[in-house]
What does this fold into?
Amino acid sequence: MVMTRFTQYLEDKVTQSKILFSGLLRCYMKVIKNEAELAGIDKDDHVLFIGGGAAPCSAIAMQKLTGAKVTVIDNDRDCIRKSKALAKKMNFSKDMIKIKHMEGEFVDAGDYSVIHLALQVSPKEKVLDRVYKTMKPNTRVLVRHPKESRKCFYDVNLRKRCSECSMVEHKNFTNIQATAMYL
Ligand SMILES: C[S@@+](CC[C@H](N)C(=O)[O-])C[C@H]1O[C@@H](n2cnc3c(N)ncnc32)[C@H](O)[C@@H]1O
It folds into this structure.
């Protein structure tokens, strides 16, 4: 998808500047704080991020804010290489953040207490079907929704799954409008 390529390109550039990267991370910190509160995430959780990108800011922010163990997957080998280098540079051990190349459609969600889907993940319904097929009962599933005006750029709309979900709205300049928690 065009937006995914564009975001990957931007993230790649941002990681080359300390100032830009810390600005981006700060922005994700606010989103992650809301999401961690929504799902009650703490250090005993193991969170799977599907679609980490070259700069896995959400995963980094989650690990820093909650102390949870985090695993990140992405289906782009170049992003995996760059995000591994970044995590190493930031001194995250593999017990804190583990990064692997994998398609969301083939993930085994059974090892995690929280599953998190990036805005750019596609095909979302297929990935979610796989998550629901393999996850343990009571796993919390967090799915980001785009702002109304940016919907055309993303694989949406999952609100139909949302008849019994909790949502948190974000106020930031990213394309993320809200995060839904499905149970
Ligand atoms: C550009 S990143 C944005 C995430 C952002 N860095 C963050 O921390 O929240 C989104 C990534 O999702 C990945 N992606 C999209 N669909 C996927 C799928 N089905 N399985 C695994 N990764 C996927 C893309 O390769 C892309 O790198």
User: Anything to note?
Assistant: The chain has a mean pLDDT of 89.
